[in-house]
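$ ./design --mode recover --in tokens.txt
reading tokens...
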């Protein structure tokens, strides 16, 4: 990578992962750059702008991503789906990576990778004047020259089919990380969520994903609900996603209001 302008944001998430350390992130479900800015100053390595389940539109995404990047934290976008223009729109904001939900086959993973990479590796079109700034480049040409190697492409593993196909998924070139979606995976395997803690078929499926990802040199991540769970998960996972702003806000108020009324 060429020298970047002094003082620009680092690729925080990619840096942490490449150094072999566990990275921590959180989902940002509330639209608006101020919420994203607050989350970026909590000590996380990445803020995941949630276009799948969050209340975030395209315009808000374009404001939130550079706000996070300017705070020295990696903006990642969980896209609503991987067909159509979702990936292109997310990456054109300057996102340091994307998370594609419901990736269940190797062909799904290849499609995600193709849409995330510029030719000759993929089919992504070039035209955004904005993406370069979140990477510390001054011009789109610099960004295009390095984007293929710098963008993190992540797939969410959350179906029984994905677990069955995880060996093939992990062999897809250009796919960097598998993120386990515990609630949807629990629904798919057990028929309910969250798991109760003793369902062998569920936990063995997670072990299979983790072992296969490591075998094929892919990073692997998990979503958790609190700091204690995050600390425990950091022993086995490269990326730990610590809840979401909406759930954290509600949990804090419920706890404190209950204390106030006691």
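writing sequence...
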């Amino acid at each position: 990578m060429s020298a970047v302008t002094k003082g620009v944001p680092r690729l925080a998430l990619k840096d942490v992962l490449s150094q072999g350390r566990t990275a921590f992130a959180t989902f940002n479900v509330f639209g608006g750059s101020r919420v994203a800015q607050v989350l970026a100053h909590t000590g996380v390595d990445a803020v995941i702008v949630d276009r799948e389940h969050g209340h975030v539109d395209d315009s808000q995404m374009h404001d939130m991503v550079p706000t996070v990047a300017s705070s020295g934290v990696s903006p990642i976008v969980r896209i609503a789906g991987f067909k159509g223009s979702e990936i292109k729109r997310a990456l054109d904001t300057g996102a340091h990576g994307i998370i594609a939900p419901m990736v269940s086959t190797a062909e799904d993973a290849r499609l995600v990778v193709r849409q995330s990479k510029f030719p000759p590796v993929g089919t992504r079109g070039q035209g955004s004047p904005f993406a370069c700034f979140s990477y510390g480049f001054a011009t789109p040409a610099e960004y295009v020259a390095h984007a293929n190697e710098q963008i993190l492409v992540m797939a969410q593993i959350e179906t029984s089919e994905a677990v069955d196909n995880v060996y093939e998924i992990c062999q897809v070139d250009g796919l960097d990380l598998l993120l386990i979606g515990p609630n949807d995976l629990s629904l798919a395997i057990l028929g309910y969520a969250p798991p109760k803690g003793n369902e062998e078929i569920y936990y063995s499926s997670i072990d299979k994903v983790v072992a296969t990802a490591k075998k094929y040199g892919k990073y692997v991540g998990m979503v958790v609900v609190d700091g204690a769970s995050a600390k425990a998960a950091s022993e086995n996972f490269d990326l730990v996603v610590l809840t979401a702003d909406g759930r954290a806000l509600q949990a804090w108020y419920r706890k404190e209001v209950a204390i106030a009324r006691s």
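exit 0
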